Amino acid sequence: MPVRHRGVGPAHLQGGLGVLRAFQALTQRAQSISVASVVKLFRSTRTRSTSEAAITYPSSYAKQLILGLGLALLHPEFSAHGAQLKRYEYSLPRMGTIFHIELYAPDDATASRAAEAAFARAEELEQIMSDYREDSELMHLAREGSRAPFPASNDLYEVLAKSIRISELSHGAFDVTVGPLVALWREARTTGRFPDASDLAKAKALVDYRNIELDPTRRTVFLKRAGMKLDLGAIGKGYAADQMLAVLQSRGLRRAMVVAGGEVAMGAPPPGEVGWKVAIDTADAKAGKAPCTLVLHDAALSTSGDSKQFVEINGKRYSHVIDPFTGVALEGMASTTVLARDATTTDALGTALSILPVADGIRLAESLPGVAVYMVRQAENGWKRYSSRGFPESCLGRN
Question: What's the pTM?
């Protein structure tokens, strides 16, 4: 059964990436929790829809409210047909994480049908892009794509075309051909042992995005080397979030937000609000720093880091993010938060900018319209924080 939860939300863009300056005024009107807290609340709340004018919570929610989950809507909004918009929340497991929808709709039926359609779209995309399902389109491509051009679905073709574009922009820091390396590091997280050097060398020899050949006329994909395996884990969830939001908006539900793990795709703000308030768990938040908070709408946000997926081997901490240049997972604690117009871009850039040297990552972000980045890196003498032009000051003030 879908579960409701007040989660993270949308972003405010004006002619690229605009940031709302009314942050302090909003703290009395709407509070939020971090992306990392989503799953905990999913397990403690029950499905229900409410009018924003009269919200009640089970006793287990009281402590969360004390911590700042204020949800009262001061200015109710009505649909084109005169019905007051109500807030609904749904969640389901997809792509190895929890996907969450928050939307405003005039009635239960409209909300439920739209959410079901959005989750159905996510399931469709998982069947296309999963590297865990042997019968997925991606796995068929891995088995057949080096023998002859593979006729791809529109979704797979578009994701690969976007992937190659980000690879070109990042000079290979983002590379979906890392599949063989991902397999080795998944095993390392299970065994706690560093991958064998010879195995790493063999896997790394198969990694090069330039060995993906796309034919835009026939919409085919050809893998130039046998044994190549693609991994869309650093772009697929962002693409799914964008597509789910598009489904909701196609049904007239503009005030909606989708969270797909750490990827957030956002539409128009909640009724009566200027934006969604999004708390980000940056790496330094674990060291006593409060998560930075943004107020945003009609945009996307992704945070890439090692707070949830990492392994410690011989006293060193290795992230789930793998450097395609070395074949080795990134070391140390770090986070990279990217803002852009769509979650497909933020998801992929989150990985690319995590791998690139900080100065190169900032240059890349500033070269792209509507993109901004905030990076936190652990250093020997403490935390280092870096940001591109245009990143909201609510995070920068934490330095």
Answer: 0.79
